[in-house]
């Protein structure tokens, strides 16, 4: 089969590789249709391996060596292993990407994203930038006929956005501030809109701000002193930081009113200093959000994407697998993509 294989920094090769092993107990083999890329893929491509176990065996997945990336994929079940129920062969599905053990304390508490043996397909073992991939059936959610593939491929990152809203504690209909309207930030706006939550968006890119308004933001302002001041006056109790920058995190904390909550979703590339004193005096809750809970967040993501097709607003391009480096990874790293890149495996 054809696949993109990571061999090191800026070394991804599209080549022929053996098909994955047949599905074991509780697993399915997918024929991949589309696979999206995100900022983590770009970071691994340009600066990794950070999460990819190229030199050392991953303690949970057991993988070591060159690896097929891609953790945002949708496809059709080609083959089912033993004990798979409810997802027959031929079913279109999206995959949640994260593997959990189901028996450790976090898993038993329903927080499978914090599993002690967690690993991610496409980051810690072979993923979806290939014609076929074998994954646990429990990680998959069926896609209704009314949800096209170009919407379904957004389900995994949409689930991450919905999980952040769940972590925020904000109820449907309550307003939120979102700092950063990039890949995950734009999906946060769409996720909030699916819950009728007014969003006030801050970003430095005029194009991203326009997209945020098209996705349903109540306001979209430049993240300068004027924009920050206008949002601060609204005293919105929930602020989600999605830019992954130190300045964004500091702004999020500054915008959170006393008794409010700052949700840290973006991943800074370096340690960030924040005003802990203000957080303590103002009783601001500092909450982090990581990945998603597949059993709850992924089905809601599929439902939201079925109700409203947002792919024309958030996907910049869909390219063939052979063009993944030149047309997707390189532009992603060089910040030349105003939206997401999706890879077609058809």
TrEMBL record:
Alcohol dehydrogenase-like N-terminal domain boundaries: 24-145
PROSITE patterns given in the database record: ADH_ZINC (PS00059)
Enzyme Commission number(s): 1.1.1.329
Pathway: Metabolic intermediate biosynthesis; 2-deoxystreptamine biosynthesis; 2-deoxystreptamine from D-glucose 6-phosphate: step 3/4
Keyword Ribonucleoprotein: no
Pfam families: ADH_N, ADH_zinc_N
Domain of life: Bacteria
Zinc as UniProt keyword: yes
Catalytic activity: 2-deoxy-scyllo-inosamine + NADP(+) = 3-amino-2,3-dideoxy-scyllo-inosose + NADPH + H(+); 2-deoxy-scyllo-inosamine + NAD(+) = 3-amino-2,3-dideoxy-scyllo-inosose + NADH + H(+)
Cofactor(s) the protein requires to work: Zn(2+)
InterPro entries (UniProt xref): ADH-like_C, ADH-like_N, ADH_Zn_CS, GroES-like_sf, NAD(P)-bd_dom_sf, Zn_alcohol_dh
Residue ranges annotated for the Alcohol dehydrogenase-like C-terminal domain, each copy included: 183-305
Entry keyword set: Metal-binding, Oxidoreductase, Zinc
Similarity comment text for this entry: Belongs to the zinc-containing alcohol dehydrogenase family. DOIA dehydrogenase subfamily.
General function of this protein: Catalyzes the oxidation of 2-deoxy-scyllo-inosamine (DOIA) with NAD(+) or NADP(+), forming 3-amino-2,3-dideoxy-scyllo-inosose (amino-DOI).
Record's protein name: 2-deoxy-scyllo-inosamine dehydrogenase
Organism: Streptomyces spinosisporus
Lineage, opening ranks: Bacteria, Bacillati, Actinomycetota, Actinomycetes, Kitasatosporales
